[in-house]
Structures are given as structure tokens and as C-alpha cells.
Specification:
The complex is a heterodimer.
Chain A (H helix, E strand, L loop, with lengths): L3 E5 L10 H11 L5 E4 L3 H4 L14 H18 L2 E5 L10 E5 L9 H18 L2 E6 L9 E2 H5 L14 H10 L6 E5 L8 H9 L4 E5 L5 E3 L3 E3 L2 E8 L6 E10 L5 E11 L5 E6 L3 H4 L2 E6 L8 E3 L7 E7 L14 H7 L3 E5 L2 H4 L6 E5 L6 H12 L3 E5 L2 H5 L20 E2 L34 E2 L8 H4 E4 L5 E8 L2 E6 L14 H9 L11 H4 L3 E8 L5 E3 L6 E2 H6 L9 E5 L2 E5 L18 E4 L6 E2 L1 H22 L3 H16 L17 E5 L4 H21 L5 E6 L11 E5 L9 H12 L3 E5 L13 H10 L7 E3 L26 E3 L23 E4 L3 H5 L14 H24 L2 H4 L3 H7 L3
Helix pairs in contact in A: 1-3, 3-17, 6-7
Chain B lengths: L5 H15 L4 H7 L9 E6 L5 E6 L11 H4 L6 E9 L2 E6 L16 H18 L3 E4 L11 H10 L20 E6 L5 H13 L3 E8 L1 H5 L6 E4 L6 E4 L2 H26 L2 E6 L4 H14 L2
Parallel strand pairs in B: 4-5, 4-6, 6-7, 7-10
Antiparallel strand pairs in B: 1-3, 2-3, 8-9
The chains are: A alpha/beta, B alpha/beta.
């Protein structure tokens, strides 16, 4: 690639340059237009002849300037292109461009496309027919003029699978004997069939290979190891040390996709693999959705985590209270030990825990369940829960599931249970029989030292054989199971502690829990588990690791899922069947990325992305600049510049003034308190709010030690609210509903002690809560807000006495419907104290419709802007409105201080005064 | 024209302002040493008048009524109180109202016509206040006394004329009166000559003040230009205005010389005033010229 060449998109336009000399003559001949002047002295000029007979010509430099401008314009329109010198075009044989087009090309795809563009331009110039083929989605290509392919380049996209000989071999076969040169844009990986393909292509002509030379990186599915998420990655070239950043993506609290954590992942020089551990809090881990390598765009560097990282939530319920001091005998002790490392254990009353929708509920020796609880449990089971029950003395003694099968029991039980191998019984303690093939425990090794001394015994039933999934050596059931809706009930016929058997002490117990999907959901499924299941794609990945909604795709049979033969029929992504979500990633857990070593006879070149630069913009702007210079120069030559100078300076200054003049607002400027109002978008209303709060600020300034700065307009979408203790929110029926983020911030604001005064401004016509347009709007605006129960401002509310003693709270209108946070139900009136001890905090909202801002509003000199009432009574009402404002701000700023004052006598009393 | 129209008041106030800057002529005449002297000029000889001139001994022929008994009582001789002889002059103004006067080369400069009218009216006001009779040449406004005449003068000055260049009006001049001509005198010089000759014939002496714009004095033009007279009757096109400058200035100087010569011949005084200088300067000169021409 030696040097750059200049070419033109429309070379014919350059012919216009011939016209330049003609224009030269023309411009030279025409003098500048005469200037007309009114001049009384003209009478003295009459008869004077010009000394110079030759007309005043355009100066030469101006002429050159204009010619240059015109030439730049012509050249600019001709579309000059600066582009790299193409590869040798020795041959004129047809060209086959081969793209690998698998996920391994995802990273270099942009480079490939740019290179393709350049290549096709060269082939257009060389008039070589071109065919293109993407090996992942092969189609028999047509040899067409290269220009025809230009527009189709964008249609090629890397696929989330790699080429396979079954698909592309027939297509290549169809091209046999056509005779063409091959340009192969390769991803650099060795895969099955690559050599054969190379041989086939070499039979047709020369083969040139283009590779980026950066190698391919892939990330394996994450594993959980001792609470740490371990992510390993592999690369195709073990060259120098390579620094990557692994990003853990997940949903933030608002449900938006975000990078939750980023850790460096370092390939040491010479190593093909690297590993990094992520220690995330369970809270964050539950929200993880995928891992990505920053800066890579490939399906192999994006790993979906599915269910495998999610911790299961297990609710533990014991039938009897723990006996204090006898931890090891607690029915839940061993379960807690087994579950705690890998699952979130919650304990409490059953009816309290059901709303949390745990994945598993463990009932250890619980015999009877209340009717309401039973119904709720059944609902939960139908929805896919796992109920794990353990037997015990209570269950054995109870009448549950004796005559008829209890819905929450898998089998009927015989009375009493039995014990074997004890001091008072015959026989030896029993051991476990090998697990049958149909059992989920099949294949687990059974330690020889497990002994079962007691058990509850199932009644023989026709369904019993199907439901038993583990037996004792004498054939009596140890674990039985039945499905209820989408969920299941599993009964261990022994206790969860070591009283009846040594099973809970063994490792087998943990393995069995794991198999029952109690510990964590299983990502790897045995083939029979997948039989007859249909998996619905939730999100699918494209070749560059971008996730798309997969809901529109058809479901996939379980068998196809296990094969992991990605293709048109099976895209990597998240698949769901019932309650299970499985992540199918491009990389299997230990897949390596073998590098392709091309035979030495093949020339391998780098992907050279030297872009063709379009210079027309440069030329056109040059022409524009020259024209502007010409305008100034022409004015100067004709003597008009002086007069137009001022105007010109102004125009230029106007152009050079930065257009975006929005001043930086310093949010932390509120070193002093300032009152704030919500910008509604209605200009009049905003001015009213501003005037009102200014009036209130002045009132505060003159009457109290609160000295607010001028009011601040708050845009809920953009501004930080934490600086303002008090926000006035006038309601108009036209204002927009804030976004979710704004509501999140508003809720934070309300929880952290801020106060919003909602003002529907319609108390003259509407009662609160009735159907005025502003009232309805307020309901819509306030629905997402975290507003506590409200009540009409009671007479003994602290607001009535934070500064002034008030009974009414008028604004421009005097309605008594002013609502504040309701008092707690246990608030009582205490004898001798003027008001109840209501809230220990500030009411987060005050809602009313009295149009307070209009009553507060003053102009800059303190004159009221809006009439309130009539005559003296009106002025009194305005005064009360101001007092209400003062009380309100005092209430916000002092919190419960005023209501605490009532305790002062009692405190003094206690101090012995 | 309405008395309260803006132009009327504008012109009047400006003229008043000009007049207010200078002491009235009477006060100056009392001091005699003042630079500006106008109005009821003392003739420095005994005669009709109000001001005391001298006491002289009674001569035969003086009637007893003429004896100043208060002075005579101080001595044995009898004295007659003589007063200074005072006369009132008629002053006639001609202020060019042609189109060529309505020109200014820059926004901050007044039109020549405006300057000429202000000067003319100011001098008129001062003369009227000091008891002279002031009027316009021609028959439109004969000289009269009194402050009412100020208003009439102002009204008369507001009339504009659409001819390109003005010709001095020399008809109906009172013999031995005084005259003030204010114009740019760019028009035909023959009119000026005729007017001055007529004036000289009647013993009228006066002042000829040429009011010019700075552009007319310096000719700052360049490039290809078409010059037009204000009313549009005359045109001159040039390809290089800058080359005309010297010849234009020479012609202007010629014109000034000619005017000076004409004035000398007729016993008048000539002055050239450029509008970018202060009006007061021109005013001072006008006073002096009128005083000196007494």
C-alpha cells in the first residue's frame, strides 16, 4: 500500500475548469458597479473629464481570489477522494470474496466491512466481476460487477455460530471449475473443514487471506466457587500480555441494564487462558444478567448467566420451637448448615414468608397446616414451588394423610411409623438401596455408613411405586415425590436432624438436595430431563453479542438444546421452560480457540483499514471562505466597507457567538436555604410560583431568622432535589408526567425529609379529591409517589403552631381541605398538653388547593401582585396566608422540634426543678 | 403651518438656544467694550434717544423746557441735558431654502439648511430683542419690530424650495438697510453678482455667509461614482472620483475667491462656515460683521 491517490467521484465536472480563463477575461473587463451619490457640489464637477481613459478595473489580486474560489467550488463538486493505492491488480480473473462470518469475526467485523468497501472500489476500477460468500450463511453467489455488491455489504452480518462444512461445502462445490481468485477475510480460527475449503479454493486460483492479527478472545460460562463467581477466558494467540476488562452487567434498581462490576482480566504472556474471580454481594449477584469483555463485540465475549448464578431462596419452618441450648437437635440445624453457603435462607411464619415467593419451602416435622395456609401453599405449589417435607415424631403421631392422601403429602402414611435396629426392636438399622434409574438421585454414590433407624411408612397405593424416588434396602420408601401443578412435593420419610437417621450428617444429603434443585437451579440437564420439553427463547444473541428479544421466535425442543449445534434453528441466548431459565452461550465451559496456521504458500495480509477520504467538504468550505473574503474585499475596493464595517462586525460577531448559551447552574449554590418550585412548563404558572416564593422568602426574611435566597426553579428531570428543603408544586392540567427516574428521585427526596406542597389552585371551585381537572391531574402525578396515608390537617397538628398560632390555612382561597400525613393510630391526647405527639417527623406532603403562591406573590418592591378577598378582610386573609407559609417552612426546617417543646415541663420536672 | 408642529418648535428652540448663549445686544452696547454690538446703536452724538449723553450750557435758542433744572440748580449756569441719538436699523435676511442646502455627509452633522436657518434666526432674534427691525428680503416678510416677528420669521424660514440651487433675493430692499445672506452659493454666481449690485445701488451693506458641508470642503470620494444633485437635475459620472479631488477643490477655491471679490466691490463681508464647526463661532462672526458694518 504505497502512497495515496486522488480520484474524483464525478470527474466530468472538472471540465468546467476550462471555463475559468473565459471568466478571467469577463471579470477583468467589467469594472465594479458605480456608486450613486447625492452631492450638491456636483455643479462644480460638471465638465471635468477623467484623466485616465481606461476604466477602473477589478484588481488583479481580487480576480485571483475569485478564480480560486470558483476553482475550489468546481473541484469540490467533482467529489475529490483521497484513497489508498490498491493491491496489485495483476490478474483480471473473477474474484470470490469469502467471509468467515461467524462469531469469531464479530470483533473485526467493522474493519472487514471497511476493507470490503475499499476492495470493491478497486475491483470496480479493475472491472473484475465479484462474488461474495459468507460461510456461516452460504448461498451460491453470482459473479457480478463489483459495484453491485457495494450496496449489499451492509447486509452481511456475523452470525452467532461458526462455519460448518455441511452447510458451505455444497455451495463451494457449485462453484467448482469456474476459475477465480479468492480473497478470504478470515477470523483466524481453525475449524473443521477449513483446510478442505482452502484446497478447493486453491484449485480455482490464487488465494489471499486477510486477518486482523489480533486473535480471538472468548469467555467461558461463569462458575460459582465458594461464593465467588469465577469467570475464565481463552484466546487464540498466546502472544504478549493482554489486558482485558470483564464487565458484569445486570439490572439496576430501576430495571435498567448497567455495569454492576468491572474487573481486570489479564492474559499472561504465553498463556492461552485467564481467570478472574468476582466477589459480589448476593444482592448484586441476583441481578446479574451477563458478562462482557469491554471493547469486544463478539458473541463469544458475551456470556449470559441465566439462572445458574441466582441463589435460591429457601424458607425453613420447623414444627416445634427450638429447644434452647440443644442446637444439634434442632430439626433445622443440618438443613441450615447445608443450605446457608449456597442459598438464601429465610425463617419465620409460613403465612409471612409466602408473599416473598421463595423457591423452596422446607417443612420439618410439621403435621397440621391451617386451612388458609394450606390454600396459599397449594397456590404457590401450582405456580412452581418446591415443598420439601421431613417426617418426625409429630408427623408420625398425627392423622395427616392417613385415610386419604393429603394434597400436601406425596403418599398416604401408616399410623405410627416404625423404628428398626433399636434396643427394643428387631433387626439392624437399614441402609439405602441404590437409586433407580428414574430417580433424580440416580448415579449418586451411597456411603455405606448411612443408617436409618426410624421412618414413617407409606401405605401401599397404586401410585406409590411411581412416587418413590429413594428406597431403603428393604424396599420401603425413603423419599417420595409427587408433582402439583408446576411444582412438587417431596417427602423425606426421616427427620431433618440426626435423630432418626444419619442421612443429614452425610455428604449425600447435600447432593440429594442439589439434585432436587433445592440448593441451586441446575444448568446442565440430563437428556431425559429435557425430553418432551419446549424451551421458549427469551433473549437471543447475534454474532456481535447484541441481545435481542426472542419472544417472537418459536419454541425449541429440549433435545436440540442439548446438542448446542448453533445455527439458524438455535441461537445462543436465554431459554425458558416453566420456571427454569437456561443460558445457552457460544462458548462451552472448556472450549479452546485453536488458531489457524495457514500453509506458507498462502499470503496472509493484515486487514488494512485505510479509509477513502472524501475531500469535497474541504474544497467546498475553502470555496465558501474565499467567497466571504471576496465579499469583504469587494466592499473594500468599492469604498463601501467603511460604512458597512460596523454591520459586518456585528454579523460576524453574531456568527461567532456560541449558540448554546445555557449558563452552568451551580446546584450547590444553595449555601443558604432557598425555596424551590417545580417547573410546570406553563410560563404564567411558573412566574406565579416564582413570585409567590419570592414573596414568602421576603416574609421569612423580615419576620424570622430564616433568610432564604431567591427561589429556585426545579426541573424534576434534571435537577438534584436534595438541596431544597421545601418544594412548591402547583398543579396544572397540562403539565407533563415526570419520568420514572424523576419519580425515583422524588421518592428519595420525600423519604429523606423533604416536603412538597401540592397546590391544585382550585379550592374556589372544587373540593379536595373531587373531580376537578387539576385534582385528577394531581392524582395521576402523585400516584407513583411514596405518599403515606393522609388526613385533613387536624387542629392539634404541629403545623398550627410552629411559628404562629393558626387555625386556618388560607391562600388566595380559604378552604379547610388541607391534607397532611395522617397521625399514627396510637397517638393519644395527653392531658394538659395542647397537641398529641403525632409524627416524629415532618409530613412529607401537604396537599391543598388554596393557591398559596398567588397570595404570597409580590413584585420586586414587596407589593402584592394578586388580589385576595376584599378590602380589609382580604388583607387579613393574605396575612394569614403568609403566616401559613412561615409555619410551613419552619415546620420543614425544625422538624419535630416544636412538638418536642411540649415535653419541656416534664423534662424540667424530672431534673428536679 | 401649525405653530405647535414639531419642526416649528424644534427650529424655534434651537434658535432660542443659540440666542441665549450670547448676552443681549443692549447689554453689550451699554458696555461699549463688548465685542458684539447690535440694536439701538448709540450714534455717539447727541440726538433723539433715551440714554444720557451730556450736559451742555444753555445756548440761545434753547427753549426753557429743555433746561435740566435739577442740574442747573447745582451751579449758577443753566444746563441742558442731551440724549444720545439713537436709531433703529432694518436688517433683511435671505436664507437659501433650495434643495442643495438639504445635505449632510454624515449622520451626526446637521443639514446645511438647518445650520443656516438656525444661524439666521438666532441673529434675527438677537436683533429683534435689541429693537431692530428684522425681515426677509423680497416681499414675503418686510422688516418689523417686536417679538411677534420672531414667530413670523420662523414660520417663513420653514418654507422649503425644490429648485436645486438658490438665487439670492434682492428685490424690495430698503435703502441703507442691512442684509444677511446665508447660502452655500454653489449655484450660478451671476445671481449673487446681480443681487449684490442691486444692494450696493441702494446703499445696503451686509454679510454673505457661505455654509458648506465638510464633504464639500474635502471631497473624500473614491472609485467609480455617479454624483447627483439633491433634486436630481444634475449628474456627473466619473470612473475615479479620487482623481477629481484636486480639480474640484481648485474650482471651489475659485468660487470662494469670486465671492470675496464681489463682496469687496459691494462693501459686504464674506465668511465661509463649515457645518462640522460650532454654530457659535459663526454666530460670533456674524455679530461682529454686522457691528463692524455699522
Amino acid at each position: 500500500m504505497a502512497g495515496l491517490t486522488l480520484a474524483f467521484a464525478n470527474p466530468l465536472l472538472l471540465a468546467a475548469l476550462v471555463g475559468l480563463p473565459l471568466l478571467w477575461l469577463l471579470l477583468r473587463a467589467i469594472p465594479p458597479a458605480p456608486l450613486k451619490r447625492r452631492f450638491p457640489g456636483v455643479i462644480l464637477l460638471l465638465g471635468l473629464q477623467d484623466e485616465d481613459a481606461v476604466s477602473d478595473r477589478t484588481p488583479l489580486w481580487l480576480l485571483v481570489l475569485r478564480m480560486l474560489a470558483l476553482a475550489a467550488l468546481i473541484v469540490g463538486c467533482a467529489g475529490p477522494l483521497l484513497k489508498p493505492k490498491g493491491a496489485d491488480q495483476a490478474s483480471d480473473a473473477p474474484v470470490l470474496i469469502v467471509l468467515d462470518g461467524g462469531w469469531a469475526s464479530g470483533d473485526s467485523w467493522a474493519a472487514h466491512q471497511q476493507m470490503l468497501t475499499g476492495m470493491l472500489e478497486e475491483f470496480t476500477l479493475a472491472a473484475r466481476p465479484v462474488a461474495m460468500i459468507q460461510l456461516t450463511t452460504p448461498e451460491v453467489p453470482l459473479f457480478q460487477p463489483a459495484g453491485a455488491w457495494q450496496s449489499k455489504i451492509v447486509g452481511f452480518a456475523p452470525q452467532p455460530w461458526q462455519p460448518s462444512p455441511e452447510t458451505f461445502a455444497p455451495v463451494i462445490g457449485a462453484l467448482k471449475g469456474r476459475g477465480f481468485d479468492t480473497y478470504w477475510l478470515s477470523d483466524g480460527l481453525r475449524w473443521e473443514g477449513r483446510e478442505d475449503l482452502l484446497a478447493a479454493l486453491e484449485r480455482e486460483g490464487t488465494v489471499q487471506v486477510f486477518e486482523t492479527g489480533r486473535g480471538v478472545v472468548g469467555v467461558h460460562a461463569p462458575n460459582l466457587k465458594d461464593g465467588t463467581i469465577v469467570v475464565s477466558a481463552t484466546r487464540s494467540r498466546a502472544t504478549a500480555t493482554q489486558q482485558e476488562t470483564l464487565e458484569a452487567h445486570g439490572r439496576d434498581l430501576a430495571g435498567q441494564d448497567q455495569v454492576l462490576a468491572a474487573v481486570p482480566l489479564t492474559f499472561q504472556a504465553g498463556d492461552l487462558t485467564a481467570e478472574v474471580g468476582l466477589n459480589l454481594p448476593a444482592e448484586l449477584r441476583a441481578r446479574l444478567t451477563r458478562f462482557e469483555l469491554a471493547g469486544h463485540r463478539s458473541a463469544a465475549t458475551t456470556v449470559l448467566s441465566g439462572d445458574s448464578l441466582r441463589r435460591r431462596e429457601v424458607a425453613l419452618i420447623a414444627g416445634r420451637a427450638d429447644r434452647e441450648g440443644l442446637e444439634l437437635l434442632s430439626p433445622l440445624h443440618y438443613l441450615r448448615q447445608a443450605l446457608a453457603p449456597n442459598a438464601d435462607v429465610i425463617e419465620g411464619a409460613l403465612i409471612d414468608m409466602l408473599p416473598a415467593n421463595p423457591d423452596v419451602i422446607v417443612l420439618a416435622d410439621v403435621a397440621t397446616i391451617a386451612v388458609a395456609e394450606e390454600a396459599a401453599l397449594l397456590d404457590w405449589l401450582e405456580g412452581g414451588g418446591t415443598l420439601l417435607r421431613f417426617a418426625g415424631p409429630r408427623l408420625a403421631a398425627s392423622e395427616v394423610s392417613r385415610r386419604t392422601e393429603h394434597p400436601l403429602m406425596p403418599v398416604r402414611l401408616r399410623t405410627g411409623g416404625r423404628s428398626v435396629g433399636g434396643a427394643m426392636s428387631w433387626g439392624e438399622p437399614k441402609t439405602l438401596a441404590p437409586f433407580p434409574e428414574t430417580s433424580p438421585f440416580f448415579g449418586l454414590p451411597i456411603p455405606a455408613d448411612i443408617q436409618v433407624r426410624s421412618q414413617v411408612v407409606a401405605q401401599p397405593d397404586p401410585t406409590l411405586a411411581d412416587r418413590v424416588i429413594a428406597e431403603l434396602s428393604d424396599g420401603t420408601p425413603l423419599v417420595s415425590r409427587k408433582t402439583v401443578g408446576q411444582g412438587q412435593v417431596v417427602l423425606f420419610h426421616v427427620t431433618a436432624n440426626a435423630e432418626w437417621s444419619s442421612l443429614p450428617l452425610s455428604g449425600l444429603f447435600v447432593q440429594m438436595l442439589e439434585r432436587l434443585a433445592v440448593l441451586r437451579s441446575v444448568d446442565e440437564f440430563t437428556p431425559e430431563q429435557l425430553d418432551d420439553t419446549i424451551w421458549q427463547p427469551l433473549r437471543v444473541m447475534d454474532g456481535q453479542g447484541r441481545l435481542q428479544d426472542g419472544q417472537a421466535l418459536s419454541g425449541i425442543a429440549g433435545e436440540i438444546l442439548t446438542n448446542r449445534q448453533f445455527g439458524q434453528d438455535l441461537l445462543p441466548g436465554l431459554y425458558q421452560s416453566m420456571d427454569r431459565v437456561v443460558a445457552l452461550n457460544v462458548m462451552t465451559s472448556d472450549q479452546a480457540l485453536p488458531e489457524m496456521f495457514w500453509p506458507s504458500r498462502i499470503t496472509v495480509r493484515g486487514v488494512d483499514v485505510s479509509v477513502t477520504r472524501d475531500l469535497s467538504g474541504v474544497f467546498l468550505s475553502l470555496a465558501l471562505v474565499l467567497v466571504i473574503v471576496d465579499i469583504v474585499a469587494s466592499l473594500a475596493v468599492s469604498g463601501r466597507l467603511h460604512r458597512m464595517g460596523a454591520t459586518a462586525v456585528m454579523v460576524i460577531a453574531a456568527f461567532m457567538t456560541p449558540q448554546d448559551g445555557r449558563a452552568q447552574q451551580d446546584p450547590s449554590g444553595s449555601g443558604e436555604v432557598s425555596l424551590a418550585y417545580v417547573v410546570t412548563g406553563d410560563r404564567n404558572l411558573d412566574t406565579l410560583s416564582n413570585d409567590g416564593l419570592r414573596g414568602l422568602s421576603e416574609t421569612l426574611f423580615f419576620r424570622t431568622s430564616v433568610e432564604p435566597e431567591s427561589p429556585v426553579a426545579v426541573d424534576l428531570e434534571m435537577d438534584e432535589l436534595a438541596f431544597y428543603p421545601f418544594i412548591y408544586w402547583p398543579i396544572s392540567s397540562t403539565q407533563p408526567i415526570p419520568s420514572k427516574e424523576a419519580y425515583a428521585r422524588l421518592n428519595t427526596y420525600l423519604r429523606s425529609g423533604g416536603m412538597i406542597l401540592f397546590d391544585t389552585r382550585d379550592a374556589d371551585v372544587a373540593r379536595f379529591g373531587s373531580t376537578s381537572p387539576n385534582g385528577r391531574k394531581l392524582q395521576r402525578l402523585a400516584a407513583p409517589l411514596d405518599i403515606p396515608p393522609l388526613e385533613v390537617l387536624p387542629d392539634d397538628h404541629v403545623l398550627t403552631r410552629t411559628f404562629y398560632l393558626l387555625r386556618d390555612f388560607p391562600g388566595r382561597y380559604n378552604s379547610h381541605d388541607v391534607w397532611v400525613e395522617a397521625a399514627p393510630p396510637d397517638a393519644e391526647k395527653i392531658e394538659g398538653i395542647p397537641f398529641r405527639n403525632l409524627n416524629d417527623g415532618v409530613t412529607p406532603v401537604v396537599i391543598g388547593g388554596n393557591d398559596w403562591a398567588a397570595a404570597w406573590a409580590t413584585d420586586g418592591r414587596g407589593n402584592p401582585l394578586y388580589p385576595v378577598g376584599r378590602g380589609y378582610a382580604g388583607e387579613h386573609q393574605r396575612e394569614l396566608a403568609n403566616r401559613f407559609g412561615v409555619n410551613l417552612v419552619m415546620h420543614v426546617l425544625t422538624g419535630n422540634y416544636k412538638s418536642d417543646q411540649v415535653h419541656v415541663p416534664a423534662l424540667l420536672d424530672r431534673l428536679g426543678q | 403651518m401649525n405653530k405647535s408642529s414639531p419642526t416649528f418648535t424644534h427650529l424655534r428652540t434651537q434658535a432660542e438656544a443659540q440666542a441665549a448663549r450670547l448676552p443681549t445686544l443692549l447689554a453689550q452696547a451699554e458696555q461699549l467694550a463688548g465685542t458684539i454690538l447690535l440694536g439701538e446703536h448709540g450714534r455717539r452724538r447727541a440726538g433723539m434717544g433715551d440714554d444720557f449723553w451730556q450736559y451742555r450750557p444753555v445756548q440761545p435758542g434753547d427753549s426753557a423746557r429743555m433746561v435740566d433744572w435739577r442740574r442747573s440748580a447745582k451751579s449758577d449756569a443753566q444746563f441742558v441735558r442731551e440724549r444720545e441719538w439713537q436709531v433703529a436699523q432694518s436688517v433683511m435676511l435671505w436664507i437659501d431654502s433650495a434643495a442643495s442646502m438639504r445635505f449632510s455627509s454624515a449622520n451626526d452633522l446637521p443639514h446645511k439648511a438647518e445650520r443656516a436657518k438656525v444661524l439666521g434666526l438666532a441673529i434675527g432674534i438677537l436683533l429683534l430683542r435689541s429693537g431692530e427691525r428684522v425681515g426677509l428680503t423680497g416681499t414675503t416678510l418686510p422688516p418689523r419690530r417686536g417679538t411677534e416677528q420672531i414667530e413670523r420669521l420662523t414660520m417663513a424660514l420653514l418654507q422649503d424650495n425644490d429648485t436645486d440651487y438658490g438665487v439670492p433675493e434682492a428685490r424690495a430692499m430698503l435703502p441703507h438697510a442691512r442684509a444677511v445672506f446665508l447660502s452655500d452659493f454653489l449655484g450660478d454666481i451671476e445671481g449673487v453678482r446681480v443681487a449684490l449690485e442691486k444692494a450696493a445701488d441702494r446703499g445696503v451693506r451686509g454679510v454673505l455667509m457661505q455654509v458648506l458641508d465638510p464633504a464639500e470642503e474635502t471631497f473624500p470620494f473614491q472609485g467609480r461614482t455617479v454624483f447627483q444633485s439633491i433634486a436630481g437635475s444634475l449628474n456627473h459620472e466619473t470612473r475615479k472620483a479620487s482623481e477629481l479631488k484636486d480639480r474640484y477643490l481648485a474650482r471651489l477655491a475659485d468660487r470662494k475667491d469670486e465671492l470675496t471679490k464681489l463682496c469687496k466691490a459691494a462693501g459686504w463681508q464674506y465668511h465661509c462656515h463649515v457645518t462640522d464647526r460650532s454654530a457659535q463661532q459663526a454666530m460670533l462672526w456674524l455679530y461682529r460683521a454686522l457691528d463692524g458694518g455699522r
